[in-house]
Target: Hypoxanthine phosphoribosyltransferase
Amino acid sequence: MNVDDMGADLERVLLTEEQLGARLDEIAAQIDADYAGREILVVGVLKGAVMVMADLARRISTPLAMDWMAVSSYGSGTKSSGVVRILKDLDADLTGKHVLIVEDIIDSGLTLSWLLANLRSRGPASVEIATMLRKPEAAKVEVDVRYVGFDIPNEFVVGYGLDYAEKYRNLPFVGTLAPHVYSS
Ligand code: 5GP
Ligand code: MG
Ligand code: MG
Model:
């Protein structure tokens, strides 16, 4: 799907496919340097992290296994509920593993704080976080996010895995929606 196909739904493009890819090249190189000689268990948080997981994992040379977790913190609207629920747990045992959580976006950081505590309680050797996007609110959360793609303004964004009412996840770029989409 491209900008033209989105027609009137899109307000503006915040990050192009090229920008996202170039940043992932840099992050993957950093990850390879940091994890040299080790193996990684990359944990993708469904559904939003599907795109970044696929694009980041393909750029990493370090041996890795992939696992997925689904948690719910947002409904179909645009406000955080503050409630985190496991919809699908990991298949892997985390004992002794170097876990790298891959996230689409950190907003309030509520989901991430909860996830970190949860995964750390399972006896991993290490847990780090990589997120494609980070909003200003996230600065208030006292968690160390090792890899950040882009710091973005406090706006609701869609595309590159991120949805509005389950739509727009397949956009190859990150953009904002026109106001009429929310109100209709
Ligand atoms: P947090 O718990 O950090 O507030 O938010 C975590 C989750 O909320 C993200 O994984 C994502 O699913 C959703 N979210 C937060 N901000 C946005 C946004 O701007 N757009 C979309 N589509 N989802 C968001
Ligand atoms: Mg997420
Ligand atoms: Mg969502």
